[in-house]
Amino acid sequence: MKFSSWIAAAAAAASAAAFAAPLMVRAQPAAPDGAALFNARCKACHEPPVGRAPARASLAVLPPAQIVEVLTSGVMAPMAAGLSAGDKRAIAGYLTAGAAGGPQAPAGPQVAATPARRGGFRPLPANIGVDLMCADAAPPIRATGSDWTSVGVDADSRRFQRDPGLTSAEAPRLKLKWAYAMVGGGMPTVVGEWLFVTNRNGKFYALDAKKGCVRWLVEGVASRTTPMIVKSAISPSGWATFVGERNRTVRAFDARTGKEIWRSAPLEANPVAGITGTPVVSGGQLFVPMSSGEEGAATQAGYPCCSFRGSLSALDLKTGQIQWKTYMIDEPLHPTRKTAAGTQLQGPAGGAIWSAPTADAKRGLVYVATGDSYTEVPTAGADAIVAVEMATGKVRWRRQVTPGDNFIMGCNGAARGANCPNPIGPDYDFGASPILFNLSGGRQVLLSGQKSGAVYGMDPDTGKLLWSTKVGSGSALGGIEWGMAADDKRLYVANADTINLFDEVMRAEGKPPVEGENGPAKPGLYGLDPATGRILWAAPAPVAPCRYAGDRSRDYAGGRCIRALSAAPSVIPGVVFAGATDGWLRAYDAATGKIVWQTSTTARTYDTLNRIKAQPGGSIDGLGPAVAGGMVYVMSGFNGASRTGGNGVNVLLAYSVDGA
């Protein structure tokens, strides 16, 4: 019997039975209460936001299907244990009902589906806008000397653009050329006339770098990594791009068409794992770091904390097949103690790799920086710089700088959950990629920055500590959060001291500190001598006005401007570009630290190319600006930092000399 016939017969039988039997009214089960479920399972971390957790305002603008996916198979799956599919849909519906993450877009044609898409279109929230294709034919991808093809620009992760297409004298003349609104957008990469950027809402764009129109768009690529672009024979066009996804897989695409080339198997089975650091290509290998949301999942009293271990995987560039996988924690996992409720805890765990690896082809090494430990079980793999052999995955050396940094969310200040390690550490992860720097006489030094506010210089051959310098007081949100930059003379360090700034505001209002005592705030940009660590100059972050439009989480800092330099800076000859969480983007004289140009991305709203009217800006956080072809690109409104100006919907801003 065909399915349609079976349905018809069943309907007829049901109808006959209804007339033959007394009328009965069956009570319908009560619909899940999304508000009650959110309050019970999610509110403690998201309203107000705790640690790295996004605020409810940021969640409100996400597509409901994405929230369900994260609760089902993403980093929040442990928090949603025991919930039905209907419960998860109810939470998503509650969060997104009446979302006010951005203005409504007028009607207009959407971009046509490309062959790279799978599963068709998902209806898009109106506040994401209308993606419009470029009217002209797509040009070929042609490399120039002014490209920004990876998160660190070069294999050394220096974020130094030698040929930016604009001079230091022209930097004060930068003006906005175009703006594009997107949910959860990250740092772009640029090759010739092409710009590539991912979004946490699952949209992977190729835009025209000069005009901002859409060349192609692939949906269903939920990612916060920066696409790496390489010239490669694995792609029909000769150019390939690689993206790490939230679901622990990597996908390769033809950079000119958006067609998928290959998709890896999941690189980690642990459901709390995810990819935040950009995968990096060296030779015929792709190196993929693995991070984790277990610090948040462990706040649930019944969660068997903790088992995640950060790892680095090497994939074959041609096929995406795994060549080797190395865990950062190599001590055996074993049961530890039981909680008062009888939950068996375990360890050691942690050592997430939050940032992109740094490839050293000369030595055949890949350097990674690891995060904190999640349990009190000792491990040498947390808060460490680790050198891994490219060919084998064997650890050549490891240098731990903060032993005993045991931390999960919800253990700050007076709060002590059932799974909190004892003792509690300060949460001083490494979130920035190591930088390989050339010194005089052919020597090199490996530079790294930690959330403690400390900068380290190490011997890249042995890991021996050569020097250390403290530029900030440090806190769970930095210190040095997402990166540093270096030209041929100096190391440029962006220091956040974010929670220290929160504490200043709380004290001024007669309230206790946010997460315990963290020391005085020293936000700003610092110039260091890479050979010795000596501070050459310091440029404190100015106190400046801002407007955190769309940010509902005003519990912290009273909605005030937080001037933390959390984003990674970028450098061109003579000028350093750095953004702050108060939404200001500034250009600093590289020799002195003097501000030569600045603009507030929150002082105005933007009419974007994808038909959003009056889109607000917000905090500048994450991986900072990209400079290519005479343009400076920056994402304003980072939705992962809603305590400091995230508004859920970001806006990609493109600046050029005189706006031309």
Descriptive account of the structure:
This protein has 660 residues and is mainly beta. It is 11% helix and 28% strand. The strands form ten sheets. Strands 10, 11, 12, 13 and 14 form a five-stranded antiparallel β-sheet that branches. Strands 1-37-36-35 form a four-stranded antiparallel β-sheet, with no helix packed on it. Strands 2-3-4-5 form a four-stranded antiparallel β-sheet, with no helix packed on it. Helix 2 (34-41) crosses helix 6. The radius of gyration is 25 Å and the shape is globular.
Which structural class is indicated by helix and strand composition?
Answer: mainly beta
- End-to-end Cα distance: 67 Å
Query: How many β-strand runs?
Result: 37
| Number of DSSP helical runs | 8
The residue fraction in helices comes out at: 10-25%
Instruction: Give the overall average pLDDT.
Output: 86
Q: Characterize the largest beta sheet: strand count, sense, and whether it forms a barrel.
A: 5 strands, antiparallel
Fraction in beta strands: 25-35%
Radius of gyration: 25 Å
Shape, per Cα inertia axes:
globular
**Poorly predicted sequence stretches spanning 5 or more consecutive residues:** 1-26, 99-127, 550-558
How would you summarize what this structure contains?
The protein is mainly β and 660 residues long.
Question: Which key features would you list for this structure?
Answer:
five-stranded antiparallel sheet; 37 strands; globular
